[in-house]
Amino acid sequence: MAVELWGAYAPDMHEIIWPTILYFGTPIALVTTLNADGSPNIGPMSSVWALGYTVVMGWESTAHTLANLERERECVVNLPDHTLVEQVETLAPLTGSNPPAAHKADKFRFEPRKFDAAGLTEQDSETVKPPRIAECPLQLEAKITAIHEPATRPDGAYFRIAEAQVQRVHALSGVVKPGTSHVDPGQWRPLLYVFRHYFSTGKELARSFRAED
Predict the structure, then answer these.
(1) Residue 212 in contact with residue 181, Cβ under 8 Å?
(2) First to last CA, the chain
(3) Which of 145, 120, 127, 115 is nearest to 51 (CA)?
(4) What is the model's pTM?
(5) Is residue 115 within 8 Å of 122, Cβ to Cβ?
(6) How far apart are CA 134 and CA 93, in angstroms?
């Protein structure tokens, strides 16, 4: 049965697929941590979500940022908007590990000065040691509360789950509703990672019954 309009329902219109990844539309985060020598690192990632003031992050077991989180127990989760897509893509193939992990060696390269490489600006944090990224409209200072043991993916890779408690939220004035502590969703355009492509949000479709003015 042919379906002319995307989104219209018809019997048997679904098919079974096995995508290599399931990034069905998650926000990009630039997680800043401190290296063992005290220098800052930026870890770009898209496996992040929040429940209340708890932020949950998924990292490959060999990730340099994960090693920093395990040692230092604090970070800043910086959330870029749609204007920072070039900076994010510049950071994507860089790693703070020297040498890069064996399975990344063909696509990643060591870069100890990621702020300079991406043209981003360090900004002092208030409750944690890692710096914020000044260009990111939302910045969440956080401390690690738990790191869960490795799990195995079907392809044999290992990953770990880190939980962090947000200590302070910094928001660019332009995305805050005046006189409130609410982010204005009409002004905030997060950078989204959708099946390894970059997208952002469009116009508002509807309001949730839980939406705050």
Answers:
(1) no
(2) 44
(3) 145
(4) 0.90
(5) yes
(6) 21
Two structure tokens written together for 66: 């994960």
Dig out the tokens for 55 from the structure.
């932020």
pLDDT tens figures, 29-86:
999 999 999 999 999 999 999 999 999 999 998 899 999 999 999 999 999 999 999 9
The predicted-structure confidence for 128-154, as pLDDT tens digits, reads as follows: 999 999 999 999 999 999 999 877 767
Tell me if 117 sits within 8 A of 91, measured CB to CB.
Answer: yes
The residue whose two tokens read 């990034």 is 23
**What whole-number distance in Å separates Cα of residue 75 and Cα of residue 65?**
9
Residue 128, token pair as written in the block: 């944690």
State the pLDDT at residue 197: 93
Q: Look at residue 3 and tell me whether its pLDDT is greater than 70.
A: no
Say how far apart CA 91 and CA 191 lie, in whole Å.
14
Angle at 120 between CA 50 and CA 185, to 5 degrees: 40
